[in-house]
Design brief:
By secondary structure, the chain is α/β, with parallel strands linked by helices. Helices cover about 40% and strands about 10% of the residues. α22 links the parallel β9 and β10.
């Protein structure tokens, strides 16, 4: 279609009759003399604007509540797209906003709605967009907090979000609400295709085609239908789904709302009930600070371990705790929880069978796992939830609820799946060989191919290093068949200073799908997608560009990785070079004497915004501090710098 100048400059003549006055809303503001004398002018003008937007004047003094969401895109009334969102996770979220707002209005409250949309980690895999992914979380949390404070008359906040960065950002914002009530509505999940691949596996079609595993026609077909329904987060227990689980485990969401199928009536029902919960919290004078406690944070860590959650929550949960003014979990805390808590949930991508998130929901989701964890004495059930009740009371309701019985029956009848195979008892999980979730150094131990684990439940790998400074170089080598059986891919300059602590699912997913590549290990100062699998050691800190020893590794160095999945301990050692083998102690000595590689450099496309983010989070405790902005530490660092100038 060719567009000439007149098509963008000229308008129809019937548009030129323009009114300069209007009658305005009928009625009058329900104000008093006391309000005129003492209320801030902003409060009074707010009532004027509310009337101007069409709210019934007689209802203007109803209590005001704010609904914040990550909604993106523009849908027609029939659901068809007018403008696409960045991802399906926020595509239908506006329906939840509408359902919650209508419920608030019906219950004589005044709902306000605002949005801060979010990017898609799947869409930005392997692109420079990934360098904005983790930094975006802090930006969004800041914007959401500013929106909360910019409605001074709010009595509480409802947050609605779904995916990898928008949902942690929303939880960070809600955590800061303090005495104000705050409720989280998770955006749910998309459905599996009746015939095809899930959204995790389908992201490997490029690597598989390059290795001649699939045809162009097959790639085109499965790529088209992997997101089988238009809304919700992906079908696997990645960062989006894990964040929904964590929100419920914290008590911020109502029981059994995480992982609901987007667009379904039961999903909309959660928004309406959450609106009622917000009003109930207001009447009970219970705020976010009453729900978010140290006990709630530990409960969330327990559920993370029981579900086999994404390692990205090692960054997000400390940030949520920090936002609530609570102590941030440490490496030792995570290790202790993972040693104590068995994995109970069989979900994609971990297996052994790998059920979809909607099937986990039908099997009972978070409260079903909590019943078993509570019986084992692993949860603090005295913690408050946004229902206004304790976790103990919620679990007792769940145990006897018709909802539980009906949905578990639905899973059995519709898919022929025993709910007890999805969310297991401790004995069944042990019999099925479910490994604990995370061990340190950071590796998702559930994701290592079971055939590589010895009788002592230990993974051992020794092989030559192949070092890559950029993800682009690594994926090119993998697709070209230049990464061989037994290699150790060392991908550096991917941390905060190098590439915004990019997520490298493009690399880990490609390795998973290639026949010999389960015998390839990955070490990186970047991070992983929650759907990543394989022997991947990440979050390496200090990063290469901060002087970490990983920045001294050379091609051909012999790297030995030992991961004990029973004790949840691990080691990564230099045990040789191109001249021969030596012991780990000798390797440490040699590595300490080496100079850093001369080719270390930030990615040439690293945005200035991300460079600033990296500097601020480094001053605030770095990766293990949750990549937050700690004002006190940042100000102290700036003052120290000023003093030396």
């Amino acid at each position: 279609m060719k567009l000439d100048a007149s098509s963008v400059l000229d308008s129809s003549a019937d548009l030129y009759r323009i009114a300069t006055h209007a009658s305005g809303p009928a009625g009058s503001l329900p104000i008093t003399a006391e309000m005129l004398l003492n209320a801030p002018s902003g409060n009074l003008f707010g009532l004027t604007q509310n009337a101007g937007m069409g709210w019934e004047p007689a209802r203007l003094l109803d209590p005001e509540f704010l609904i914040l969401s990550t909604h993106g895109g523009l849908r027609a009334s029939d659901g068809s797209p007018i403008a696409l969102g960045f991802h399906s996770g926020h595509w239908e979220v506006g329906l939840l906003v509408e359902a919650a707002a209508r419920e608030l209005k019906q219950l004589h409250a005044v709902p306000f709605a605002g949005a801060c949309t979010d990017p898609c980690d799947g869409r930005t895999q392997g692109t420079t967009g990934m360098m904005d992914s983790l930094p975006y979380r802090n930006d969004a949390a800041t914007v959401l907090r500013r929106l909360m404070r910019s409605l001074p008359t709010r009595k509480g906040v409802l947050g609605i979000a779904t995916c990898d960065k928008g949902l942690p950002a929303m939880m960070m914002a809600l955590a800061s609400a303090g005495p104000l009530p705050a409720v989280l509505v998770p955006g749910g999940v998309t459905l599996l295709p009746e015939d095809g691949e899930d959204a995790g596996k389908v992201q490997t079609i490029g690597a598989r085609f390059a290795q001649q595993q699939i045809t162009l026609e097959y790639a085109a077909e499965v790529g088209c239908r992997a997101c089988a329904s238009p809304g919700g987060g992906c079908q696997f227990l990645g960062t989006a789904a894990t964040s929904q689980v964590i929100g419920e485990a914290l008590g911020l969401s109502l029981p059994h709302t995480a992982l609901a199928p987007s667009g379904h009536p039961i999903w909309l029902d959660a928004a309406r009930r959450s609106a009622r919960a917000l009003l109930r919290l207001h009447s009970m004078q219970l705020g976010a600070a009453d729900v978010l406690t140290d006990a709630a944070v530990r409960n969330a860590m327990v559920l993370h371990a029981a579900f086999g959650g994404s390692t990205n929550l090692l960054l997000h949960l400390p940030a949520i705790a920090f936002s609530a003014g609570l102590r941030r979990p440490t490496v030792d805390d995570w290790a202790a929880v993972n040693r104590a808590v068995p994995r109970l949930v069989d979900a994609l991508p971990n297996g052994p069978r790998g059920f979809a998130t909607v099937q986990v929901f039908l099997a009972g989701g978070v409260p079903e796992a909590m019943l078993e964890l509570s019986a084992a004495g692993l949860l603090d059930t005295s913690a408050k939830t946004v229902s206004g009740e304790t976790l103990a009371a919620c679990l007792e309701w769940w145990r006897h609820s018709e909802r539980r019985a009906a949905l578990r029956r639905e899973l059995q009848e519709q898919d022929g799946i025993d709910p007890g195979d999805v969310i297991m008892t401790r004995d069944r999980a042990r019999a099925r060989g479910l490994a604990p979730t995370v061990c340190f150094p950071v590796i998702k131990s559930t994701a290592i191919d079971a055939s590589l684990i010895d009788e002592g439940n230990v993974y051992r790998h020794r092989g030559p290093a192949k070092v890559f400074i950029t993800e682009e170089a690594a994926i090119k080598a993998i697709k070209a068949g230049e990464v061989a059986h037994g290699d150790v891919v060392v991908l550096i300059c991917g941390g905060p200073k190098g590439a915004g602590m990019q997520e490298i699912y493009q690399v880990t997913s490609a390795l998973k799908q290639l026949p010999h590549c389960k015998h390839v290990a990955v070490i990186t100062d970047a991070r992983f997608s929650g759907v990543s699998t394989g022997a991947c050691v990440g979050h390496v800190s200090p990063e290469a560009l901060a002087g970490g020893p990983v920045g001294k590794v050379r091609d051909g160095d012999q790297i030995e990785i030992v991961i004990n999945r029973e004790r949840l301990t691990g080691s990564v050692d230099l045990v040789g070079d191109t001249n021969g083998l030596f012991g780990a102690e000798e390797g440490s000595s040699r590595l300490a004497k080496r100079a850093a590689r001369e080719d270390l450099r930030p990615h040439p496309a690293l945005p200035d915004d991300t460079r600033i983010w990296a500097a601020l989070v480094q001053a605030s405790g770095g990766v293990w501090g949750g990549c937050v902005y700690d004002p006190d530490r940042i100000v102290a660092a700036l003052r120290a710098g000023e003093a030396t100038n």
